[in-house]
Amino acid sequence: MRSLWRLAMNDVRLTLRDRAAFFWLLILPVFLIWMFGHMFSGGGGANVSLAVRDRDGGWLAAAFTEELQAPNVVLKVYRGPEADGEEAKKAARWIELPAGFTAGALAGHQQLLRIQSAEDASTDYSRAAEVLVTRAIVRTLGRVAEMKGANASMDTATYEALKARPPIIALESSTAGTGHAVRGFEQSLPGNMTFTVMMMTLIYGAVYLTIEKREGILKRQLTLPLSREAIFLGKVLGRLLIAMLQIAILVAFGKFAFKLDFGSSPAGLAVLLLAYAFSIAGISTFLGAILANPEQASTVGWLSSTVMGALSGCWWPAEVMPGWLQKAAHVFPPAWAMDGLHALISFGKGFEAVAAPSLVLVAFGAAFSWLAARRLRAL
Amino acid sequence: MGIIAHLVAKDVRRKARSPLGLIAALAFPLLFAGLIALAFGRGDSIPKVRILVDNEDDGLVASLVASAFTSQQASAYFDAKTVTADEGRKLIDDGKASALLIIPKGFTADVLDKKPVKLSLLRNPAEGILPEIAEQMTGAIVDVLDAARRVFDKPIEELRPLLADDDKAPADADVITISLSVKKAIEGLSGLVNPPAIALESEMFGTAVKKEDKKSNGDTPSAIFLAVLPGVAVYGLFLVADQGMRDVMTERTLGTMRRQLAAPVTANTVILAKAAYTAILAAAALFVMAAVGAAVLTTSVSVAAFLLVAFCLVLAVTGTAAVIYGLAKTERQAATLGNMVFLMMGFLGGGFIRVEGLPAAIRAIAPFTPLYWGTKGFRALLENGAGVAGVLQPALVLLAIGVVLLAAGAAALRRTAKAGAGA
Question: In chain A, what are the domain boundaries?
Answer without folding.
Answer: 2-41+183-377, 48-164
